[in-house]
Amino acid sequence: MAQTRLAWWLQVTLVFLLGRAVTTAMLLVLASQQPENAWTAAQPSLWDFSTMWDGRWYNIIAEVGYPQDLPLTDTGHVGENAWAFLPVYPALVKGVMLLTGFPWSISGVLVSVVAAYGASLLFYKILTKHVPAQQALFAVVLFSVAPVSPLFQLAYAESLQLFFIALAIYLLQRRHYGWMIPVAIVLSLTRPGALALALAVGLHWIYRFVRRSRSRFPTRERVLVAAVAIVAAISGVAWLVIAGWVTGVPSAYLETELAWRSVYIGYQELVPFTPWIHAATWWASFIGWPAVVGYAVLGVLVVGFAIFLFTPAVKKLGVDVKFWLISYALYVLAVFFPQSSTFRLLAPLFPALGAVAAPKSKIYRIVMVLLFIALQWGWLLICWRIDGYDWSPP
Fold first, then answer.
1. Which residues is 72 bridged to in the sheet?
2. Cα–Cα distance for residue pair 222/204, rounded to 1 Å
3. DSSP category for residue 62
4. Best CA proximity match to 328, nearest among 181, 172, 155, 196
5. How many domains does the chain contain in total?
6. pLDDT digits (tens, 9 = 90+) for 306-338
7. Does the residue 393 lie in any domain?
8. Digit-coded pLDDT (tens) for 57-69
């Protein structure tokens, strides 16, 4: 009798649902133990527990929009405010609320889950262009139980961001350049990262131009790819311009973002590629180490990731995935200050899971799944659950 096999999309669907079942069980346990806090009463429902932290900022944006007047601290600096959060996710959730009559909590989670499911399907298709189907499916397994995968069912914009990143890579791989332009624009208004996409597309242009004698790179495509890169670059700074125009403060967005890191290093101007150096000093001091140890750890992380990019497993994922990994890693290194939210900010590097999934050993794969689930529980304990004064936001 011929062996039947489930369609690829059904396999991905089952994997995704199992991953969400695991996360839901964890969230229910933690919600039942959650004390009263700034966002919820004690022992909140799963829906309320899933909309804490930045979910409240998105809720505020959906209900009242963005402030024209920036809040100021006692020292005269711009304080934390809604301009740090981009508009596509809250607008989409608001639309779901109006169409369904569901409250914010249910609508926010619903949008996140659907977007994460779409990202899972696209991730599988991205990988199967270059690696075997079983490797691609295991990468989706790791994606579904990754340490920060609870974000797939929380009222955060990350699921939507990962969906548009996956869609952009999928289109880039298949050279559907024209469709990338609206994707780049929407991505730029969902979560920061369009500048990384601009760099990835630019690297794609250079790669194709250098190889034009072996693989045609017609003038029309050269112009179109360049246009995508330019649109992505302009879109990557558009929110800065919009925030400055509405508030009358040209640096409104940057000052708002810097407010969040001020609790660590005070108010400083953003100088590209210095935040991680400042963080190396701060974290070393916090732990009680000499600053040189912090710099050494930073160096090991950077060099280790660079070596990883040149491994055979990453090479097999294709140049476009590699270009994205390089571009987004540089973007994170240039602008983000590493603290507890860094785990979440590294989520767009998810295509690297295709390389992590390469080994075929059953023992390896079982260990990796169990490790990821354990780290997921750790992330929820450290970053999501609120225990008194909490300085480790997700």
1. 78
2. 10
3. H
4. 196
5. 1
6. 999 999 999 999 999 999 999 999 999 999 999
7. no
8. 999 999 999 999 9
